[in-house]
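TEACHING EXERCISE
Course module: macromolecular assemblies
Task: Read the component lines below, then compare them to the predicted structure of the full complex.
Student: A.B.
Group: 4
Components provided:
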Amino acid sequence: MKSEIIAVGSEMLTPFRQDTNSLYLTEKLNEIGVTVRFKTIVGDRLKDLVSAIRNALARTDIVILIGGLGPTEDDLTREAVAEALSLALRRDAAQVAALHVRAATWRMPMAENNLKQADVIDTATILPNPNGSAPGQWLDTTFNGYRKLVMLVPGPPNECRPLFDDECMPRLRAVVPQRFIAIRTLKAAMIPESQADKLLAPIYTTYTDVETTILAKAGDIQLTLLCSKPTLDAAQQRVDELAGRMEEALDDWLYSSEGESLEQIVLYYLGLRQATLAVAESCTGGMVAQRITSVPGSSRSFLGGAVVYSDPLKTSFANVPPDLIAKHGAVSAEVAAAMAEGIRKRTGATLGIGVTGIAGPTGGTDEKPIGRIYLAVSDAQKTDTFERTFRGNRDRVRQWASQQALDLVRRKLM
Amino acid sequence: MKSEIIAVGSEMLTPFRQDTNSLYLTEKLNEIGVTVRFKTIVGDRLKDLVSAIRNALARTDIVILIGGLGPTEDDLTREAVAEALSLALRRDAAQVAALHVRAATWRMPMAENNLKQADVIDTATILPNPNGSAPGQWLDTTFNGYRKLVMLVPGPPNECRPLFDDECMPRLRAVVPQRFIAIRTLKAAMIPESQADKLLAPIYTTYTDVETTILAKAGDIQLTLLCSKPTLDAAQQRVDELAGRMEEALDDWLYSSEGESLEQIVLYYLGLRQATLAVAESCTGGMVAQRITSVPGSSRSFLGGAVVYSDPLKTSFANVPPDLIAKHGAVSAEVAAAMAEGIRKRTGATLGIGVTGIAGPTGGTDEKPIGRIYLAVSDAQKTDTFERTFRGNRDRVRQWASQQALDLVRRKLM
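Instructor-supplied answer key:
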């Protein structure tokens, strides 16, 4: 079945704010085999809203409206849906009472405006919203003689998502022809996107019943494989078969077969080897440490490290000899190696990482251009150094460099 | 004048990818007084595309299509616009030649498919695309007897944005009645969103000719004031007047009157006072350092610091006495103070910061719940400590804590 999501709110037609609820809802809809054919973003104008709703009803079976259910004059979704479907709006006595109870509980004054939230479209089922004052609504109705499902859900993500899960999804499951969905997410590090596509396209294009989505960010490729079949076994088998062939093609670029993040994989391997890690960062300025510590429980394997942004700190926190810096420059393979070794010894960690480079936008030379990064990984046996040159702005170079640092640890531990 | 942006591509109807070009285009359109009334996201199906284009032509004056101009079978924007406007498509000889030259330059084979990109809609002006192979197109045409402007621009952001700036904007300026836009961005730190709105709504709601947008993230409020008038002076005067009243109301919550980031402001004050900064982070795990070093040139005032995730590192890098940790716990005001003082002395910085806390999702107690953060700022005269409790998940608590740390430095230097 085909659906359209309509996100309501003038703020989403500014340069500053974007609808994000629809990504979540799309994931849930896809899981039961419902595709999203259109998304429309419309402001708080009754005429525009009615036009958008009528267009949606004419071209899809399921229309989901997000937002515009609050108490202000700008909140017009209820009115617009009623008008588009030529249904009446009535004020629901039980909802009015609930609003009064809510206001009393929170010791808030009860403005007349608030009562708008008790307006219910004729024939609609009220969907309780435990996280806010405006309930959702569910309509199983007809438009131009065709059956249509219409849902009104509140806009704040902490209200929208649970209400959609708890109230809309069970009702949809009961109506939508049953399909089973299997999903797998694979991840690979540091492989160029074009190379990944060249390797993988000849494989996944032959699986026309599996939808493959490739998402690339700095040094990270995420592949999502989705298959919908009348039985879960059939769907899972197709996804697993394709995943297996892709894993083989990606070889050791692949770091995750089940969607884990690179940080999680690095911590997993550290735990497995009973190893600990410490980092000395210059150009990434704490980004490697921040990424690792974003994972709960990272303290079991990650000791910490030093952000050695100035040269004296490279010496005092990571034991880098000042004459090494004078001889090779702070951005050099030699200093990266000394940082990795120094931070390892200073912290007593099993592994030490050193990252130094030129993130830009200034500071590049002919010999060492902007984007040049030196990395080192050190253990008790040896210290390996790596030279890389990444393209892009300061943020992008730092993202690539931190990704490369994490991937070097993964490869060291593999 | 009213516009609609149509983003074309099935990948934007998955849970994984979102249109972002439209935010940029909206900003540019607003600058010349063109509002965006609708955004539509539509997949690579000819029927859906034609339906979306016809709806847009019926309800707005300017229709901008992003994407679907590439060489594959899925790239159908040219065909769909031609069909929606009942215009013919012709293969342009000069464009065919340009594609052959491009293929030769890059030593790439010239597939027959590629030539699709040379198809031009009757009466369209070709818009050169120096960053890709598919040119844009500009149509000044009629639909149901009304004048309509229709633009086709490529989807990749590095092609879309320059082409829109260089080719579409000058043509739009020549057609759209001239309006002048004044914009100001104010920023405030650590004020709760509800409190900001309570303070500011009575002010900005009286300026009906200035559009105020409030954007809140962890501990950071951004206010954008936009006014469009027949002269720049008139627009600037209204924006500056409203900005002045808001600045007064926000008092010392306000940190920026011209849109600078909190990191930039902290570095600005450090430079002004010829002061240097070093940080010792536990729960934020490098996030404070990473944020500061995201600013180019931060090395002039930021020395670096230590990520003292383990207790022994708190001692070896930030001089925290082990018995202090044993007595008060690693998460305590006393340890935060010792970290700030220790890192300041160890690095020779003017100011030291210490951050320790419980980011979650586990590790909370009745006395020190998840979200409890202790911060300290130390200079040669004294060390001040602060206790905060932030709500939300691990990432959100860390974001709030890093924001609070930066804001404490700002207040110290003010």
